[in-house]
Amino acid sequence: MLVSQMAYNISLILVLFLMFCGEMNAMESELQKRQMVMEEEELLGLFEVMDALLEDTEWGQAHPQPCTETPWPGVECEVSSDIQIFHVTKIHIGPDIISPPCKTTAYLSQSLIKLKYLKVLSIFNCFVSSPVTLPNTLFGPFSSLEHLSLESNPSLFGEIPPSLGDVPSLRVLTLSQNSFQGSIPSQIGGLVCLEQLDLSYNNLSGEIPKETGGLKSMTVLDLSWNIIEGVLPYSLGQLQLLEKMDLHSNKIIGTIPPYLGRLKRLVLLDLSHNLIVGPIPITLSSLELLEYLVIDHNPIKGGIPFFIGNLRKLKSVSLSGCELIGPIPNFFSSMKNLTALSLDNNNLSGPVPPNLGSLPNLDHLNISLNKLSGVLQLSNDFIGKLGIRLDVRGNSKLCINDHPKGKNLSLYLEIPSCLSIRDRNDNVSFDDGPLQEDASEIKPSWYNSNISSCSSLLDDLPIIMFILACPRVLLSTAAFNKSSRSVGSDNNKHAIQLPPLLPT
Length: 504
Ligand SMILES: *[C@@H]1O[C@H](CO)[C@@H](O)[C@H](O)[C@H]1NC(C)=O
Ligand SMILES: *[C@@H]1O[C@H](CO)[C@@H](O)[C@H](O)[C@H]1NC(C)=O
Ligand SMILES: *[C@@H]1O[C@H](CO)[C@@H](O)[C@H](O)[C@H]1NC(C)=O
Ligand SMILES: *[C@@H]1O[C@H](CO)[C@@H](O)[C@H](O)[C@H]1NC(C)=O
Ligand SMILES: *[C@@H]1O[C@H](CO)[C@@H](O)[C@H](O)[C@H]1NC(C)=O
Ligand SMILES: *[C@@H]1O[C@H](CO)[C@@H](O)[C@H](O)[C@H]1NC(C)=O
Ligand SMILES: *[C@@H]1O[C@H](CO)[C@@H](O)[C@H](O)[C@H]1NC(C)=O
Ligand SMILES: *[C@@H]1O[C@H](CO)[C@@H](O)[C@H](O)[C@H]1NC(C)=O
Prior knowledge:
The chain is of the alpha/beta class. The chain has helices at 2-19, 26-37, 40-53, 59-62, 380-386, 409-413, 418-426, 433-437, 439-442, 451-460, 463-469, 471-486; strands at 75-79, 86-93, 120-124, 132-133, 147-151, 156-159, 172-174, 179-181, 196-198, 220-222, 229-231, 244-246, 251-253, 268-270, 292-294, 316-318, 325-326, 340-342, 347-350, 364-366, 371-375, 390-391, 397-399. It is found in: Cell membrane; Membrane.
């Protein structure tokens, strides 16, 4: 279609050229040709915009017909349906288009408003040295902008202009990793078509405007890494199409509004690193599609809520540093889709549910820095599979069964050996109340039939006798040895991997 239109235009130009050949000089025919293809004002507007951005002052001369004969990869055009005229619909500057680079004094020209048909404006890593603001006058109801992405521009600062809220066609607004300050303008509530709002990694303060709840088409809301304060507005419960809500690393206070349970499409909820208090509302149990529940580092307090066990699709649960108390509930053991569980840095007590080790997909388990107790009964296979992604340290009353000939799991996991605790515990003069209370719990699993015979075998008899008496221990130790070699080179000490932006 494009080609035939171009051919049509070119033939028209040819006819004109032949008609006026005698009278016109080359310069005039060039102008005529251009006018046939693009409106002069729009073309000049584009030249001014590019001139304000790019190092190359000759961009206009090098690309006199950017929509047709002299294209540039960062500019796209569309032909209007009624009259055969091209309009600039996309300007993109980013790492994939490196030549010419942005100039050090790059800025956004007011001439952008002459590009009335512009749908996509995306500028990455362009404003890096001299300070630039986003003028309030660039946007308005006259604009056709659908997609505005200004990302990784460290010298782009100042406030987000309220006039952005007047661009009703906007569907994607990404202003991530700039230096924007001030509060999020409430006018943003006017963007009725908005599907994605990403203002992450700025210096935005103030509260989340309650008008945000009016953005009924929104699927992605990312305000992470700012200094946003105040409570979560109840209106957020109206974002019924929301799939990703990422508000981590702000200064949000108050509780999680119960209305968030209405966000039935939610796949990711990240409220970590804020000042949010508990309890986590039970209404969240209706978030049936939730895969990532990330609430770590908030003063939630209380026990781990039981409804989490109903969220069957959960892959990753992070409740580290939430001042939680009470036991690790057994329901985690039936969440077959779980790949990462972080409960570290709380005050959780009681035993570690042994069935956690039989979760088929669990690949990261951090329960360190709690008050867990008893014998750690995770299988050696599991311990070997997770390698350094298993962290049980810092639970002084948690121990592991070692046996003298096997790999020293106590040393490996950096928790006490149950044998040494038992020896100490047997001594009447050893004074550690809870340890003595839990004494029955601390007995290694292979002691449960007959302690005295097994321990004497361990100490005195040849290894062959030991195999007869306690075959399970030796077999599983061998398995550990085997699998520990296979993960030996794994140095990934990463916490939970969050998914990238959801597909639109
Ligand atoms: C954010 O604000 C703080 C204090 O207001 C300032 O120290 C910091 O440099 C700012 N960061 C950016 C990226 O502007
Ligand atoms: C795991 O997730 C799938 C869909 O992703 C779901 O069909 C399945 O029921 C879940 N498994 C469990 C044990 O809940
Ligand atoms: C555990 O509880 C003690 C006593 O209440 C408190 O001082 C401590 O900060 C808590 N630790 C964590 C990690 O919440
Ligand atoms: C587990 O959590 C502790 C404390 O929060 C942290 O220091 C440690 O690096 C974590 N371990 C892993 C393997 O993620
Ligand atoms: C394993 O190492 C720990 C700490 O060094 C020690 O107390 C324990 O006796 C060792 N266990 C065995 C079976 O060697
Ligand atoms: C056990 O207690 C006795 C005294 O009652 C003491 O001499 C001995 O050192 C203690 N042993 C251990 C392992 O603590
Ligand atoms: C332990 O072994 C002794 C003999 O060595 C036997 O009398 C006792 O009944 C056994 N106890 C259990 C619980 O099997
Ligand atoms: C365990 O691994 C060591 C080498 O790391 C090897 O010498 C030993 O034979 C292995 N033991 C078993 C039971 O596989």
